[in-house]
Design brief:
This protein has about 260 residues and is α/β, with parallel strands linked by helices. Helices cover about 40% and strands about 25% of the residues. Strands 2-1-3-8-7-6 form a 6-stranded mixed sheet, sandwiched between helices. A hairpin with an 8-residue loop joins β6 and β7. About 35% of the residues are buried.
Length: about 260
């Protein structure tokens, strides 16, 4: 009898730009996209940071669009010579670039006095692309099949992503639970291993951190069934208490952070 459970819908994010790899600019977009995708039942399975190298961008786009339901890119669609994402995506799909009339009209309305060649680059997209609107700076992103090409500037990227988020078709939504305990990972490792073996359908991760001068571990559990997660939390707390720990539920904090 076929299962009625929704399938897992997957995504990958490509962060494009030499400035990210050099450390000059810190990426602010990954967390926003990951959180938003989780809200609509899409699991971000992979993120890659790649340089402004045509061969790398083309190869990576093709690899990822074949492997995941959705691909989101950030960076490289501005007006300067090193903004090459649009032309690389066009080559990945085997189509030509063109000045999209709708994109040109959007920019003309936003930038009075006419467009120079540099600004027209922001209206140049692969043939067949669907524009992604941007209320912050007008210059649009675009979609080619399952590949969504967005700006790297965080405020602009967020505006673009918010516009496409409601159109995405998700599957099984992931839920999270988090428990913190003031014990070292080495102390609780065997307990977590046994819990994971007993619950293969639940992701269990441990994250050590110093908090208010106290060293401890946050154990994060993720899964598609909230009742199963709650049962795993009960078993985890029992195991941690048996080791002398005093586990504290921090799920509300985790939810507030969008994890």
């Amino acid at each position: 009898m076929p299962s009625s459970a929704p399938r897992t819908v997957t995504a990958c994010m490509l962060i494009i730009g030499n400035e990210i790899l050099s450390g000059r600019t810190q990426d602010e977009n990954l967390r926003y996209v990951a959180t938003g995708l989780n809200e609509v039942g899409i699991r971000l399975m992979e993120a890659r940071v790649i340089p402004d190298v045509p061969e790398t961008i083309i190869r990576t786009v093709n690899e990822c669009r074949a492997a995941f339901d959705y691909v989101f890119t950030s960076g490289g669609i501005g007006p300067t010579h090193d903004d090459i994402t649009s032309e690389c995506v066009a080559q990945a799909f085997g189509v030509a670039l063109h000045k999209d009339p709708q994109a040109v009209a959007i920019l003309e309305a936003y930038i009075p006095g006419g467009l120079n060649e540099a600004r027209l680059r922001m209206a140049t997209v692969p043939k067949g692309a669907e524009l992604i609107q941007n209320q912050v700076s007008a210059a649009p992103g675009f979609r080619m099949e399952n590949v969504y090409v967005m700006a790297g500037v965080p405020a602009v990227m967020k505006a673009m992503f918010d516009n496409v988020k409601r159109t995405l078709k998700g599957g099984a939504k992931m839920f999270s639970r988090s428990v913190r305990v003031e014990l070292a990972e080495g102390v609780i490792a065997e307990c977590l291993s046994k819990l994971q073996d007993a619950n293969p359908d639940v992701e269990i991760g441990s994250y050590p951190a110093m908090r208010r001068g106290s060293f401890g571990v946050s154990v994060v559990m993720r899964g598609v069934d909230e009742k199963r997660l709650d049962a795993v939390v009960v078993d985890l707390k029992k195991g941690l208490e048996a080791l002398g720990g005093k586990p504290q539920d921090e799920t509300a904090m985790l939810a507030g952070q969008g994890a």
